[in-house]
Write a structure and sequence with these properties.
Lipocalin, mainly beta, 10 strands, 60% strand, 12% helix, ten-stranded antiparallel β-sheet
């Protein structure tokens, strides 16, 4: 009797367990849209291990006589805890990362003086993982904006 109940439970819950498979965003990604100038680039290296995801961003482009190049990386914990940082200028940035089905959602609040910006960025993979799509919804003192950034796997 007990084995029959276990077998029935496995049959009933197998689709749910299969759907719980986590999307892995690991890879090297290059921004394709919105289009960048010929001299500019936005490359993101993402390494995901369990609940930890490290994002390394390298941006470069024309600006001034020598152009610019910036680099930064950060590791987030999916599902918490919420991370908060304050820089020397008093800017406070708080980030929470959660799963929403196959999407990864970053909820960021940035406060600088009396100004607060709230950004909701949802990541999803398209075309069997060929493209990483970042849909952003931003609200600040100027109003609300929506944008979409598409990166292609290198």
């Amino acid at each position: 009797m007990r084995s029959t109940l276990v077998a029935a439970a496995v049959v009933l819950f197998a689709p749910l367990l299969a759907g719980a498979q986590e999307t892995d965003f690991s890879g090297t990604w290059t921004q394709t849209s919105p289009a960048l100038s010929e001299d500019a680039s936005n490359v993101e290296r993402i390494e995901q291990r369990g609940r930890h995801i490290t994002v390394t961003v390298e941006k470069s482009g024309p600006a001034g006589p020598f152009g610019y190049r910036s680099w930064g990386d950060h590791t987030y914990t999916i599902g918490g805890p919420v991370e908060s940082r304050k820089n020397d200028a008093g800017l406070v940035r708080t980030v929470a990362v959660i799963r929403d089905g196959t999407r990864l959602v970053f909820i960021t609040t940035t406060t600088e003086g009396a100004n607060t910006t709230i950004q909701h960025e949802a990541w999803s993979l398209l075309n069997d993982g060929t493209y990483l799509v970042k849909d952003r919804h931003t609200t600040d003192w100027r109003g609300t904006s929506e944008d979409r950034i598409i990166l292609a796997r290198k």
